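Below is how a single chain appears once it has passed through the pipeline. First comes the sequence as given, then the structure the pipeline wrote out for it. We keep one example in the README because the format questions we get most often are answered faster by looking than by reading.
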Amino acid sequence: MNDFLPASVAAMQTDEPTHIALARRIITKREELSTIQAQAKVIAEEVGTLEVQLLETMRSMKSSSFKADDLGRRFQRSTRVSVSARQDQRERLCEWLDENGFGSYKTVNPQALTGLCNEIRKLNPQANGDPGMLEDIHPELVDLVNVFEKPTLSIVKV
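Resulting structure:
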């Protein structure tokens, strides 16, 4: 069957009813799509592995970024930090927020809590620049929240 012909013309050439010809093409295209998606998944896993290796190499070199002129790209390492309330400390966290002038954060969802911790950290002159150091945010928060860090790689055209 010719892929460039309308289904009705292709069906006439094969003496196959139009609906059967269309159904056959749908199945063929779905199988092609499934194969391509499986290949994309493998490639995405390979890219993820390579990114982890590059991030580790950059960390060991104590480099936060570099420019690859021949690639026309800048590679930048950063850390995405997410903060969430510890389940067993939610009530105490709400009390701490009230006591320290952050009572408007009664809903301690992770996004709001992460934003609050980033703001508190910016106000702390002793912060050492490491986004994962909760002690730099406030020592009392260490027992009240969980901190998740994920190294990230940004690639920017230059």
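DSSP finds five helices and three strands in the chain.

See the next section for the split statistics.
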